[in-house]
Amino acid sequence: MPTVERDVPSGPTTTSEEFSARIFGATGPAAGAGLELAPFRGVRFDPAVVGDLASVTTPPYDLIDDAERRRLLSEGGHNFVRLILPSQPGGGYREAGETLRRWLDEGVLTVDPEPALYVYEAADRQAVRQRGLLGAVGLRAESQGVILPHEDVYPGPVRDRLALMSEARANLEPIFLIHEGGGDAARIVDETAEAAPLMEFPASDGLVHRVWRITDPVRIARIAADLRGRQALIADGHHRYATYRALQARYHRSGFGDGPWDHGLALLVDSTRYPPRLGAIHRVLPGLAPHRVLERAKAVMEVTPLPGSLPVALAALADAGDRPAFLLGGGDGLHLLTDPDPARLAAVMPPDRSPRWRRLDTAVLDHLLIAGVWGVPENERSVEVVHDDPAAALARARRTGGTAVILNPLRISDVLAVAGGGERVPRKSTSFGPKPRMGMVLRLLDPS
What we know:
The protein has 2 domains: 273 residues, no CATH class; 128 residues, no CATH class. Helix content is 34%, strand content 22%. Strands 1, 4, 5, 6, 8, 9, 10, 11 and 12 form a 9-stranded mixed beta sheet that branches. Strands 15-17-16-19-14-18 form a 6-stranded antiparallel beta sheet, with helices on both faces.
């Protein structure tokens, strides 16, 4: 694979919105007619070498905190964390690339002999929680209306993943796309899952993960025909999709023609058959003491002390209904914030946003509280995030001497409406799930 310069596409960036517009909105050479999911030669762990696949696969990289990363690295072996979060992030990505190629040479990882689409399933004892197609998605500019982002991204994580992809010369983790289908592709996915799986194992997340392979050219052509007129929403993996686009732009800017960089690894789930779960992403403000946060919040919102337990406080948060509401914690008690001051809210909200966007809890939080009365800068270091788990957010806040802000999940209808109207919800607003297990199928950019 040719070597090219290592930079995110050039140009000044001051906000996540501007950076997102450049990455997602840039024209791309792969300007096909619609949604494309191409077969590829998958790379998989060999159970005969690594043993239990649950012991080497992981959650997505951004759900693994430092303590868990250190624990997994200390255990040795072939855990996937050695590729996605090596011992020295940044400079350690060369180590990750070398590890990947060594594992290929040693047979720890094997490359399937022919291109395929893969059916991936996550299920518990009651039902299939997620089932979809793993393939190489054709990269599209947002203006084509084929792949719709619904969140903004920051340059830092994109540069981080770009450094990793450049050294690994691979797509290591699929992004998570959803679409409204119910057609021929959905039937083929379900028919494929009636056979014995290529791999199957229970993991620590309480789910059984299974993978099947589709190599029949007729079935692949039927899937392609069904998807061609559809569009997909990025449910999870905005920074990785932005990285795909940055890598694509880099190669074409360097004079290379069409190639594997015009696609990226993706899991495409038919939301009409397997509706995703939408959870909240909570905020942690490290070093910002809860009593200071609380006093400043009183100037713009109603504050109600909640002396009970966390479950009782979460019930009160959920009862807020359509009103913007937040739960503050990290110190000794919990407080419910509701009813933002209309005049203060109108003064800080971007005037060019739709009324639906301005009502989003995360928009109110970002503009009225975080940037407004709390004066916290907009970057990924000043505001940490915790997916789904309010107790984990509170624990992290206490460890850092900071404050946790617990949110209700956004409604899927609001997310789809905002994205369909050409807007994006504030970054880290949604936690779609269940998220796919990482390390089950990889995609090399130079598989030969």
